[in-house]
Amino acid sequence: MSSSSAGAAAAGKPPGGGHGGHGDSDERHSHNPHLAHHFDDIETQNHASRLGMWLFLGTEVLLFAGLFLGYSVYRHLYHETFRFASHTLNLTLGTINTVVLISSSLTVALAHHAVTKGKNRLALGLLGFTILCALAFLVIKGFEYNHKFEEGALPGKWFHFEEMAGMPGANMFFTVYFLATGLHAFHVIVGMAILIWVAKRLARGDFSTDYNLPVELGGLYWHLVDLVWIFLFPLLYLI
Amino acid sequence: MSQSASSALAEVPYRAPVYQEINYLNADSGVMSWLKTLDHKRIGIMYLGSVLVAFLLGGIFAMIVRFELSTPEPTFIGANAYNRMFTLHGMVMIFLFMIPAIPGVFGNFVLPLMLGAKDVAFPRLNLLSLYVYWTGAAIVLFGVITGGADSGWTFYAPYSTTTPMTLFPVLLGVFILGFSSILTGLNFIVTIHTLRAPGITWMKMPLFVWALYATSIIQVLATPVIGLTTLLVGIEKVAGFGLFDPGRGGDPVLMQHMFWFYSHPAVYIMVLPAMGVISEAIATFARKNLFGYKMIAYSSLGIAFVGFFAWGHHMFVSGQSAFDGGAFAVVSMLVGVFTAIKVFNWVGTLYRGSIQVTTPFVYVCGFLFFVVFGGMTGIAVATVSLDVHWHDTYFVVAHFHFIMVGAVIMAFLAALHYWFPKMFGKTYHEGWGMVAASFIVLGFNATFIPQFLLGNAGMPRRYYMYPERFTALNVASTAGSTLLAFGFIIILIYLVYALVNGDVAGDNPWDSKGYEWMTSSPPIKENFEEIPNYEQEPHTYREPGEEVEHVVI
Amino acid sequence: MNEIMRTILWLPEQASTFARAVDQLHYFVITVTMLSSVGVGLLAFGFFFKYRQRRLRASTPEVVPSVRFEIAVISVPLLFFLAWFVQGYRDFVWYSTPPKDTMDVYVMGKKWMWKFAYPDGPNAVGTLHVPANRPVRLLMTSRDVIHSFFVPDFRIKMDVLPGRYTETWFEATKPGRYQVLCAEYCGTWHSQMWGEVVVMPPAEFDDWMTKQRAGALVDRVDTGGDDGSNFHGTLVEYGKRVAMGQGCLKCHSLDGSQHIGPTWLDLYHRTETLDTGEQIVADEGYLTDSMIDPRAKIVKGYQPVMPTYRGKLSAPQAAALVEFIKSLRSDNLDNVPSKEAIYEPVRQ
Amino acid sequence: MAENKKHIEEHGDGHEGGHGAGRYILIWAALLVFTITTVVTGRMDLGSANLPLAMVIATIKATLVVLFFMHMWEAEGILKLVFSVSLVFVAVLLLGVFGDILTRSTAALPSAANGTAIYMGADGTGHPSSPEH
User: Does this complex have an ipTM over 0.90?
Assistant: First the structure.
């Protein structure tokens, strides 16, 4: 969806510009195929891409802020219910997922590190591991969702969660739960797509010690996914 | 090459303006060359076409609303059709026209020219933002045609989540349009940070660039929140689970908080670029340095920042606590101060200038009056006790139309006329320009001043039928809107004529010192044959080495 | 002076204690606003004549503001604005803090009428009777969407939200009839969601109240045996109530969405294909038959699961249901607005 | 960090200054430790301390990720500014809304005891849609 295209475009911009139709019109810059015609030097261009990516991450933070706001307000209003409801979630699966995401964050950081050291094969392996982690996260999440569906915790007209019948705001907790984890899972999918794209280019030999910005930016996006989860996990599963 | 760089004084012999034969318009040909272009100027032109179509649609909806209101009883459409019309008017005007209008069109076109850059930082992202805009617009229009939306542009829950109409496509469209806005803002921020030509320091940036910078910050930070809000309302409408259903313990006021967290700063997304346009035009037509450049620049940032703390003044009587109302009210007063600073500085710029009376300048004058009246009535409605009476009445409608139409559209028209030669290398007919400007300024006053009085008299907004006692003022307003519409039609005709058959403008018809005029008009595809020398500040009309009187007031 | 300004500004009557106070600030704010915008306009206009271009590319002096000027343009507007804020907020706090000894009235907003209930008195739809010179507190809630209770002559307005109570208060100063408007957009007939506040001299009001109570006891109608005779709304409204009471809406939606049974939206005069392949038009006859003998003619794609309502629905109820279904058109989303005041008997 | 700064200036994109893969693994280990801590303490009954404790741990974890995995530690000032500003506005959003929620009268909160009872259901069916009626 548009979020994915925006993310991919932001991450993919710098090399894209290099392949752009009129990048070759300027003789002076022909030495670096990754330099777009409207930038003077590659440092400025990389700086621009990084700045663009961080701005995009800023928008993501604000996007999730809305959900965190919803959580905070309803937690304040129905704190007993929220406390109770968080204990109905599967802590083991949640913890495993946290470990999976943190580890994938590590491997994606290491992958970028490896590329800068010229170890492209190692980097590819690490990226592959990251993507597998993302997949594992989604599968585990899928099991959790399925269990919650069966219990009748899907909010709205489907809500018939017996354990919490009669508790005011029970429905609100699961609304926040499904919306926040759903939006997060959507970001996991997008991040996975970006990482697959980066891995494909890495395998093709596009990146080197000199030029590896997409690996770095794809990694940044993935770290953000991790970051959101770091907050979602205690709020939803623990307290 | 820049012509005005060395030719300065009056004794330079007159040269007939020449048309830049090779330019960005004819560099490539064919529809696909436009659709696949990465050139910021062509993207700007495509935005211009798109927002004008949106403006036309929004205008038609507005006229339907106004004509329906010419009698207190049903006039020619039904209640539900009327409710759809004002919803469409609001949605189309705000999301499809106002927000992309000045940044998308003129920001895209002149920002790189003003910075001495060959393009914006991410040209592909720029094109993507246009495509996202088209997608979002198409979905909104699809939703409008198939399902209709009758919730008002504010789509307050729980009305929006329970209306029988299929609101979802419209909400989805708004969500997608948000991405277009974010991409534009992100692109501009990065461009301003990284692509300023050598010599253009922060304190030498043209004020339009400062305004766009402040605007972009708001676009990037506020838009995600409205995106999420539309998503939540949409999901609640379709699937029944969202955060705002009172039947399940949800809080509709929370929805209003989230909505206005974006939508109040969004007002500044619309107004700040307009203020930037005025700063540029007023310096050019007064042939004078801007009085208080730094104050104008910083007040743009100030508005962008403080604008984020003021959203609750839309909710004084919504069930929000009185404490929060007071907190938001006092911050709202600060926004007024920043605007006041700008107004004083614009008027100060005219002092001892050499004023060239042109169509864009007439719009600038209109802007000055409207922004003061619109802005101060804004302060008036932010005065909590007064807002109790005015909230959701025509007073508020009139107030924000003074800002939206009176300020933003005046600035849009000023920009359109001011940069028309820059964009197309042609000039329009000044005489017709003046005629149309008179229609618009008069028609505008005739439309919206009665609405202030209607609000005082207590007519709530979004009213299909109204008590008899409001008839006279409504008829006056409808009559005024006809004049206004007539003015826009004249503009459309003479600008289209100018496009086809206008006189050659030359590179710098206004003799402006603005940086964007330091290249040919229309510019070549690469913007500059050679990056100009930016030694002089953008709004300085003193020639290098020339001694002028220095006045401090 | 007050009267002149009020007339120029088209303000309605000042019929509450709050109205007078608010209007004073209103005059001040609007006068300053008009003076300053006209002032700026005239100044710009004056400069425009005085300094118009006399020579092409004339050179102009460089005029810059002094620090003193900058401080002045910041502080003068700020002082005005803050003064307005202080006065405005004081009035607002007054307005949002009802005094101790108020007379309470419960207000229920629903599409598209106002319903008023006195704690120990009658219920009324559309008209609120209050005494003059006595503070009245309104405890308001909504049954459906957000409404807003607005009395221009009192200068009061407060949103009415579903699921909670909001409050407002006023002290009317002169007897008379004042219009109540809904100010928060609430759907098709938002513009007709009107009511009336009747302000009576205190003594007269007490009389009225006593009479209402006495009369109510005599005419008291119990809610059992709901055959429509004690329902004071339109037939359509009655039909809606029946539909809710009989549980029809558990299977039939009103908004066009799919459910166990066909939606009622636009059902009337819709051409339906039966499971036998036969086409019928859903007219009054078919609708009534379907309530009494639901399984005789099943629309294609639906299961024959509806129980019969033979004996459960009286004739007026069935007729009201049909009327209700007829009113559900996507181009006319609900029944007509209620304009007249309708009194409901006391419920105790 | 001084050398790192210098390194960046020389190479622009050289974020890999004086440290190696070891640092990442160290951070990862710290993150795991914090995760275990928060899981263990999260389900203990610490009264009102649970929420602040969990938030403090989450903030520390997030800070580690941002500073080291995302290289914020050695990033240009503008990137730091961009990210901090976005956090500031998250705070603004929470502040404005909680300024309302915390000071509203109880009857005006959606959790008012009779809230759901008086609400007839948004669809007008008269059946409160919540299971908790």
Answer: no
